[in-house]
Amino acid sequence: MIESMTGFGKTVCELPGKVVTIEIKSLNSKQLDIYARLPNIYKEKELDLRNSISQQLVRGKIELCISYENTDISNTAQINIPLVKSYYEQLQTLVSELHDHNQESLLQTIMRFPDVLKIDREELDDKEWELVNIKVNEALGQLIMFRKQEGLALQKDIMGRVALILQQLSEIGNYENDRISRVREKMNVALQGLSDQTKVDENRFEQELIYYIEKLDVTEEKVRLGNHCEFFREVAEKEIVNGKKLSFISQEMGREINTIGSKANHSDIQRIVVQMKDELEKIKEQLMNVL
Q1: How far is residue 40's CA from residue 224's CA, in Å, rounded to a whole number?
Q2: Rounded CA separation 64/250 (Å)
Q3: CA dihedral defined by 136, 139, 140, 145, rounded to 10 degrees?
Q4: Could you read off the pLDDT of 35-75 as tens digits, one per residue?
Q5: Do 26 and 62 form a contact (C-beta atoms < 8 A)?
Q6: CA geometry: angle 104, 109, 111, nearest 5 deg
Q7: What is the CA radius of gyration of the chain?
Q8: Does 226 reside within a domain?
Q9: Do 187 and 277 fall within a single domain?
Q10: For residue range 8-35, what is the model confidence (pLDDT) as tens digits?
Q11: Distance of CA 21 to the CA centre of its chain
């Protein structure tokens, strides 16, 4: 089954004194690329998170964001009042010595000084991390489900285009006899334009004509293109994580379509080839987002 590389998951973990929000999203990428934005308290678990993500998501540009909001006032940052007073008194003395009477911005200046805000360093509790990790996995599960839903839409569109290519391929046969007749007529006209004194060996002419027509024959290319399309369907329906393999198959489909176009020598067949190329390009665009 086809899965998309685009996905999103979000969960919220309510803990004593804080609410933790986990968001994870993925976009298309040739390989696995993980970017994690974590609070300091969870930094030590970044490697574990990366391992878990790589095992479950395989490929894509992944962005993990964990943030939290304190709900317990006692856990918020505290102003170091004695230090602020000390800074203020020192600045007041300096202002007096410099005879500068503008004191409106003193407090704003002091609040930017080091250690004015006291933040107690938190230690990560094992039970807390266990609850947060459960929610991380829930967010990953949501993202995977999102990928599968997007994959169904991608599969429907891609398979429809593969079916169109097969239909267009079958239409080429309607023009092959006419194409051969036109080639024969064109060569006859060219021979008739030669001097009357030139004698043409009819048997040799037929041999050369058969050789020329065989060079323009697209039967092998049609068979190979049909086989590639069927193989594409088989891989898309049965294999998981198949984006790269489907891209390789689409390249082979493109080679056969190009060869048919180079041998076409017929406006209607060339028109069909252009239509097949158009469908194949749309398939390739969609495959860029397939896992």
Answers
A1: 57
A2: 33
A3: 160
A4: 999 988 899 999 999 999 999 998 999 999 999 887 765 55
A5: yes
A6: 120
A7: 36
A8: yes
A9: yes
A10: 999 999 988 889 999 999 999 989 999 9
A11: 25
Residue at 2 is within a domain: no
Q: Quote the pTM value.
A: 0.73
- Cα 201 vs. chain centroid, distance in angstroms? 62
- Of the candidates 55, 32, 35, 56, the one whose C-alpha atom is nearest the C-alpha of residue 46 is 35
Q: Are 280 and 168 in contact (CB under 8 A)?
A: no
239 shares a domain with 220: yes
Burial (CB count <10 Å: 0-12, 13-18, 19+), residue 182? middle
Q: Give dist(CA 230, CA 227) in Å, integer.
A: 5
Mean pLDDT of 81-110: 75
Tokens linked to 177: 């006899």
Q: Provide the edge-to-edge strand list for the sheet that holds 32-37.
A: 7-15, 18-27, 60-70, 32-37
Of the candidates 110, 104, 112, the residue with the CA atom closest to the CA atom of residue 87: 110
Q: Which pair of structure tokens corresponds to residue 170?
A: 């079958």
Residue 68 dihedral angles phi and psi, to the nearest 5°: -145, 160
**Taking each helix axis from N to C terminus, what angle separates 219-238 and 126-171, rounded to the nearest 10 degrees?**
160
Which residue, among 57, 62, 17, has the nearest Cα to 41 in the 3D structure? 17
For 211, the domain range is 150-287
Tell me phi and psi for residue 77, to 5 degrees. Answer: -65, 140
Residue 86 and residue 183 in one domain:
no
Of 108, 68, 70, 72, nearest to 88 by C-alpha is: 108
Report the C-alpha gap between 18 and 122 in whole angstroms: 12
CA angle 24, 124, 57 (to 5 degrees): 25
**Collapsed DSSP state (helix, strand, coil) of residue 101:** coil
Q: What is the mean pLDDT of the chain?
A: 85
Same-domain status, 182 and 274: yes
